[in-house]
């Protein structure tokens, strides 16, 4: 489904940006390619194959470390500075997510070592994407940036899918899902809301805040998922859900406020 959601996202952003797309130069297009390579291509590829060899709980714990990787990469390549208080609150969000999965009873298995490595590479890809996107959003239009990112994912994933089906003599399976209305509904949501809208909002956020600060908000997605599961699916919430959620929310608010305080102090000292 990743190949089709990428295609749908690229098609919708092309319609939205019609008439608003000044031609990007070769230099700009080459600059976008590494970002699009990390996300969506490498991120989803590593994640998909990693989940074959490990559990979703293990993957959730590893992906909770993305803000830490982002902070390290942003400090190295973007020279973003963070206070010790911001580092502490970022670690608090990671602790909140990890505590939810650990208290839920996750069990690590030696057999899933390759899966853990793949999920770790997926997390690193996400962090690298945020750092590269932060730099590009400072000088490129957000619609164009999102369009070419979606287009790259569309081409890469669909070429992989066509090659796999052609090799297996199952090319008819490539279009067969389109005959199912339920599939089309899910595809529409994933392509437009989950891929296109989320990418546009992420790029906008990265255009006005640092990569390390923005990445902290990613851990809120786990909390939102838990809440949605309780409200929509009637899943039971336990004490560790509330504890983990409190840690994540406190960490996000604390990291944001500590960053604002550091910025104000920097400006006042000048």
TrEMBL record:
InterPro entries: AA-Vitamin_Transporters, EamA_dom, EmrE-like. One of its GO terms (cellular component) is plasma membrane. It comes from the Bacteria. Its main location: membrane. Residues 1-101, 114-255 form the EamA domain. The chain crosses the membrane at residues 49-76, 88-106, 112-133, 145-163, 183-204, 216-233, 239-257. It is a multi-pass membrane protein. It holds the Pfam family EamA. It is found in: Cell membrane. Keywords: Cell membrane, Membrane, Transmembrane, Transmembrane helix. Belongs to the EamA transporter family. This is EamA family transporter.
């Amino acid at each position: 489904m990743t190949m089709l959601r990428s295609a749908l996202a690229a098609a919708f952003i092309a319609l939205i940006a019609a008439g608003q797309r000044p031609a990007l130069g070769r230099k700009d297009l080459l600059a976008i390619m590494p970002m699009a390579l990390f996300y969506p291509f490498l991120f989803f590829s590593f994640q998909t194959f990693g989940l074959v060899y490990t559990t979703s709980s293990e993957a959730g714990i590893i992906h909770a470390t993305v803000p830490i990787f982002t902070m390290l990469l942003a400090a190295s390549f973007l020279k973003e500075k963070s206070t010790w208080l911001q580092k502490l609150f970022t670690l608090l969000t990671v602790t909140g997510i990890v505590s939810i999965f650990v208290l839920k009873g996750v069990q690590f298995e030696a057999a899933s070592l390759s899966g853990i490595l793949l999920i770790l590479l997926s997390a690193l890809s996400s962090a690298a994407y945020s750092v590269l996107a932060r730099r590009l959003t400072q000088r490129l239009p957000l619609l164009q940036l999102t369009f070419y990112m979606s287009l790259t994912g569309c081409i890469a994933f669909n070429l992989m899918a066509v090659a796999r089906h052609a090799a297996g003599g199952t090319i008819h399976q490539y279009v067969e899902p389109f005959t199912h209305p339920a599939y089309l509904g899910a595809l529409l949501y994933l392509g437009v809301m989950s891929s296109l809208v989320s990418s546009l909002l992420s790029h906008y956020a990265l255009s006005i805040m640092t990569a390390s600060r923005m990445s902290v908000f990613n851990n809120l997605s786990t909390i939102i998922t838990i809440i949605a599961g309780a409200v929509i699916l009637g899943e039971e919430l336990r004490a560790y859900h509330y504890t983990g959620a409190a840690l994540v929310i406190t960490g996000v608010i604390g990291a944001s406020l500590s960053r604002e305080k550091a910025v104000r102090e920097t400006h006042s000292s000048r």
